[in-house]
Amino acid sequence: YQACLSGGAASFMDMASFQKYCGVERVWPIYLMVTSGKYESSTATFLPLWLRALDEALATGPTATLGDIYARAEAQYWAENKGLLKHNASFASTATGRNPLTLGSIRGIPGRFLPRHEEATADWVSMEHAPVGELREGVWPGGKAGL
């Protein structure tokens, strides 16, 4: 979700009450990324980096995970935005709720899935561990047809 205030729009994913009400405490096969904090402005540079990292991972093999792809894109994002990183670090301690003084913070918010080929009693796993090879095969983590 690449937009200003996207961190605020996604804050429901951190709420235990929302997760319980919607029945997603155990399983929620989603990996949401936001490009700003709750009250921050966004930059428009993260999503293309993430898509490039995903494309490279799909081209090289099925072993990379969504977490690996996010980590690659995040490293590239901060490498390309060193001034922004420095700015955010200098204001992090003085920022307040609705006046963050920072911008372009990024965050991955992983849901959970049941790994393929596991028994029904297996533990649910963070989506950051979902192998992109399963996505390439047209099967979402958990064995459901997807793409």
Characterize the structure shown.
By secondary structure, the protein is an alpha+beta fold. Helix content is 38%, strand content 14%. The protein is built from 6 helices and 5 strands, in the order H-H-E-H-H-H-E-E-H-E-E. The protein has helices at 6-9, 16-22, 46-60, 66-80, 82-91, 132-136, and strands spanning 28-34, 107-113, 125-126, 139-140, 144-145. A hairpin with a 3-residue loop joins strand 4 (139-140) and strand 5 (144-145). The longest helix has 15 residues, at 46-60.
Essential attributes:
alpha+beta, 147 residues
Mean pLDDT: 77
Low-confidence stretches: none
The main sheet comes to: 3 strands, antiparallel
Order of adjacent strands in the largest pleated sheet = 1-2-3
**Overall body shape:** flat
Question: Can you count the beta strands?
Answer: 5
Q: Report the span from N to C terminus.
A: 19 Å
Radius of gyration: 17 Å
Q: Indicate the proportion of strand residues.
A: 5-15%
Helix content: 25-40%
Number of continuous helical runs? 6
Oligomer: single chain
Q: Structural class, please?
A: alpha+beta
**SSE order, as H and E?**
HHEHHHEEHEE
